[in-house]
Write a structure and sequence with these properties.
By secondary structure, the chain is α/β, with parallel strands linked by helices. Helix content is 28%, strand content 26%. The protein has two domains: 3-122 and 271-323, Quinone Oxidoreductase, Chain A, domain 1 (Alpha-Beta Complex), CATH 3.90.180.10; 136-262, NAD(P)-binding Rossmann-like Domain (Rossmann fold, 3-Layer(aba) Sandwich). It has helices at residues 42-49, 115-121, 123-135, 152-163, 175-184, 197-204, 222-227, 272-288, 304-312, and strands at residues 3-6, 15-18, 30-39, 58-59, 63-71, 86-90, 98-102, 106-108, 143-146, 167-172, 188-191, 210-215, 229-237, 259-261, 295-300, 319-323. α3 packs across α4.
């Protein structure tokens, strides 16, 4: 089969398309999926660059969707998965024609969710939904700051916070992205290159700050994220798109009794029951139209490097996908 392998860490040039990879073996509790779409995410860049160390070599990709073509002997037919089921997959190695994944990380796609949308929401969608349900349980009437509100995860966070009844302040870099953020539902949009974010949040909240700040940016905004979090509020720092946050003095949290959370999706959906609960909720939001998927770009395996570079450039909006031929 074809797939993208990483043999050494570095920039996007280390991504290598190989055409003679063995189709993965099916473990006892695994499901073999013929991949149709795979999502492009910052975690792919972190792995490739060595920020998140991986055993070398490895196959790229952490989410995808496609059709079940094989089922392990300990996976129950009918009640779990059958040949031909359309599924979403949360596992390593989705940038390939086939991936074998533990059934605990595979979810059936309802008829109302397309295979393309399935790949778009598996990692980013579940990340966003667990941020607003587990990292900080967003409640009606709260004020939430979403950094990078026009991006793939940011756009989902805005929609979810609005669905849950919050007032949303979003940050973006350009007027074009401001329009995207408003379409997602932002009540207020801050162009962070033109306006001081802390001062604007202070003005919009009468000096109180936000009940929660949801930021995947990392180092570049961490001080502002903390300053924008109100007394007894929560700062959820879930990503490192600008670099890893440097060590800091924990006493900085005591100024407003802020709760700091640095979560990962995998630790919120470790148990099958947790995965099922959040997936059913998320797919329901997509099916009902409460959360809409915005496609920001479609690529092929041989242009994955460009896709990752485009994502890192901050020039894209919405979800980037790879069509696996």
């Amino acid at each position: 089969m074809k797939g993208i392998r990483v043999h050494q860490t570095g920039d996007s040039s280390v991504l290598r398309q190989e055409t003679d990879l063995a189709i993965p073996a099916i473990g006892d509790r695994d499901v073999l999926v013929k991949v149709e779409y795979a999502g492009v995410n910052f975690i792919d860049i972190y792995q490739r660059a060595g920020v998140y160390p991986m055993p070398l070599p490895f196959t790229a990709g952490r989410e995808g969707s496609g059709t079940v073509v094989g089922v392990g002997p300990h996976v129950r037919p009918t009640t779990d998965f059958n040949i031909g089921d359309r599924v979403a997959v949360f596992t390593q190695g989705t940038m390939a024609e086939y991936v074998s994944a533990e059934a605990s990380g595979v979810a059936k796609l309802p008829p109302s969710v397309s295979t393309q949308s399935g790949a778009a929401i598996t990692l980013q969608g579940l990340t966003a939904w667990t941020m607003v349900r587990d990292a900080h349980r967003v409640e009606a009437g709260e004020v939430i700051l979403v950094q990078a509100a026009a991006g793939g995860t940011g756009g989902l966070l805005v929609q979810m916070c609005k669905y849950l009844g919050a007032t949303v302040i979003g940050t973006v870099s350009t007027q074009q992205k401001a329009q995207v953020a408003k379409k997602h539902g932002c009540d207020h949009v801050i162009l962070y290159k033109d306006v001081n974010v802390e001062r604007e949040v202070d003005h919009l909240t009468d000096g109180k700050g936000c009940h929660a700040v949801l930021s995947g940016v990392g180092a570049a905004t961490f001080e502002a994220d903390l300053a924008c979090t109100r007394r007894k509020g929560t700062l959820v720092s879930y990503g490192n798109s600008s670099g890893v946050v440097s060590p800091f003095g924990i006493l900085a949290l005591s100024k407003r009794n802020v709760k700091l959370v640095r979560p990962t999706l995998a630790n919120y959906i470790t148990e099958r029951e947790e995965f099922e609960e959040r997936w059913q909720e998320l797919s329901g939001l997509v099916s009902s139209g409460a959360v809409k998927i915005e496609l920001g770009g479609m690529y092929t395996l041989d242009t994955l490097g460009r896709a990752q570079d485009d994502l890192a450039s901050q020039l894209t909006t919405g979800k980037l996908l790879v069509k696996i031929d």
